[in-house]
Amino acid sequence: MEKRWWQSAVIYELYCKSFYDTNGDGIGDLPGVIEKLPVLAELGIDAIWFTPIYVSPQTDNGYDVADYEAIDPRYGTMEDFKRLLEAAHGHGIRILMDLVLNHSSDEHRWFQESRKSKDSPYRDYYIWRAPKADGSEPNNMGNYFFEGKGSAWEFDETTGEYYLHYYSKKMPDLNWEYAPLREEIYRMVRNWLDMGVDGFRLDVIGQIKKPAGFPDETRRIMPNGYAVDRSARNHIPGVHELIHGLYENAFRYYDIMTVGELSGSTPEIAIDYVNHDRGELDMNIHFEIAGRKEVPTTPRQYKAIEKRWSSLLSKNGWIVQYLTNHDGPRQVSCFGNDTVYRKKSAKLLAVLNLSMPGTPFLFQGEEIGMTNVYYDSIDDYNDPYTLGRYRMEVSEGKDPEKVLKDVAWVSRDNARTPYQWSGKENAGFTTGTPWLKVNRRYPEINYEADRSSEDSVFRFYSRLIAFRKAHPAFVDGDLNFYMEDDEQTVLFSRKCARETILVLANCSDEPAPITLPEEVKAHVFTEAVTNREGKEPRTELPETLEPWEATIFTLSF
Ligand code: NOJ
């Protein structure tokens, strides 16, 4: 495939609600993003992915869209958005929007009309089904937020039918079988593209096609009796035609990038979405590394996963690299050591994320090594998934303290706390009351303190991104792991016709002895980037890596 701009781009995921508040209402806003653009430009990113900033009642922090064509007044106006687009482009930063097309908010005009009567012209924009003979739900599907009794169907008195909602009952699923809905969506997407946006991340796009006839799900049946079987809801035959429709009617006419969030995807499944010749999406997000896991992916598993997924690149496909996003724990808390080795391990994770094949996505706050939040009370949490799971488990009789501890680890609020700009009140994020409590570690962990410290994580990221840009092997190079079965280290090279880069990382609190093959040892080693502080540069291959050391060498003969 001919090279496209997004193959060498570094993407920054921006959670506007928590980024920077300029009007004191406790909510981040677009003028705040404009004000901080120079910081992002210094970091060296190429594009910002905005999680949804459309009009929304915020049941799910914007993933419940009430108007796809207007900016939520909490964030600003359409004029602010246009100013932002222009200012970002002025810095060479592209803008990607989040397209939430599996569901809308129940406050969307379409749903308000749809629920009025069975004859409404908007009835078929959503998925309505009659109750079973006994009045119960059409099938046993549960909602992902464990909301209410747990069902994915909500009964609506007005017309005596149930509507489908995979997430909250305030987020009804859209009916992609209905051509007029598809046409509305194509038009809306083209409007954003005509305005100048540079691409999209497509929310849970692998589940817009629904299971024919809605059979009962047979796996992952919850104690509440409802099933939450993602594998029965994703990648259903016919989904590719729907995505191809988006491509044919909108994407193909613009020089943009499109990223599909494809839960439950394996490389074999994903290639059918991202093979360039098929005219669907450019790359996909998978969940084999990040995600809400009780036990984090180990270095050995990581290597095996990366190896499998990088095979897509030789099949005319492309992938996303990321270690966390707004739906999971902070990466330094999950994969690193967020106490003694916080900065060093944050840098190591930066090295891994920015050196693997594919397009790296950084999540806001990782560049200053922000950590998980762990609130003392469930009342401080906001995330509907966290709250739903807590209520469900407590109602099953589990110990509330233990449940709080369990949900705290996987809570999506870990990633969503306000950005820590300074050591001032509310971490300098707002002069008002923040919509979500700031992390209590802000006096120690904040942008100002980090940026001016000797061992700044921010400046490390910035150097690393600049280094990545100067070295085509990160984009074009093949991937070779060494000591693949080792549980402590991640050692690999990226090699293209012009150069070879060697990356050595010790993902543990202990020193790690390493052995590399003779053909690697035969090179001359130039240390290019390292997180070892205040030491002479290595000129030879080390026999042992320091705890959490990450060092990048360029190799020559
Ligand atoms: C995936 C989004 O990343 C998540 O935040 C949201 O809750 C669900 N999709 C539903 O839109």
Structure report:
There is one protein chain. The chain is built from 16 helices and 20 strands. It is an alpha/beta fold. Among the domains are: 375-410, no CATH class; 475-555, Immunoglobulin-like (Sandwich). A hairpin with a 4-residue loop joins strand 7 and strand 8 (161-164). The radius of gyration is 24 Å and the shape is globular. The structure holds 1-deoxynojirimycin.
Task: Give short descriptive properties of this protein.
alpha/beta, Immunoglobulin-like, about 25% helix, binds 1-deoxynojirimycin, 5-stranded antiparallel beta sheet, about 550 residues, 8-stranded parallel beta sheet
Q: Can you lay out the helices and strands and say which pair or pack?
A:
Elements: E1 11-14, H1 30-43, E2 47-50, E3 54-55, E4 67-71, H2 78-90, E5 94-99, H3 109-114, E6 128-129, E7 153-156, E8 161-164, H4 179-195, E9 199-202, H5 239-249, E10 257-261, H6 267-274, E11 283-285, H7 299-310, E12 320-321, H8 331-334, H9 342-355, E13 359-363, H10 384-395, H11 400-410, H12 413-416, H13 447-451, H14 457-470, H15 473-476, E14 478-482, E15 489-495, E16 500-506, E17 512-513, H16 518-521, E18 524-530, E19 544-545, E20 550-556
Parallel strand pairs: 1-2, 1-13, 2-5, 5-9, 9-10, 10-11, 12-13
Antiparallel strand pairs: 3-4, 6-8, 7-8, 14-15, 15-16, 16-20, 17-19, 18-20
Helix pairs in contact: 1-2, 9-14, 10-11
| CATH fold assignment of the domain at 475-555 | Immunoglobulin-like
In total, how many beta strands?
20
> Helix proportion of residues, in percent?
25-40%
Largest β-sheet summary: 8 strands, parallel
| Shape, principal axes of CA atoms | globular
Q: Mind telling me the C-alpha Rg?
A: 24 Å
Strand order of the largest sheet: 11-10-9-5-2-1-13-12
CATH class descriptor of the domain at 475-555: Mainly Beta
Mean pLDDT: 96
The proportion of residues in beta strands is 15-25%
Q: In CATH terms, what is the architecture of the domain at 475-555?
A: Sandwich
Structural class: alpha/beta
- Helix tally? 16
Q: Report how far apart the termini are.
A: 31 Å
Within CATH, the superfamily of the domain at 475-555 carries the name: Golgi alpha-mannosidase II
Taking pLDDT < 50 over at least 5 consecutive residues as the criterion, the unreliable ranges are: none
Ligand types: 1-deoxynojirimycin
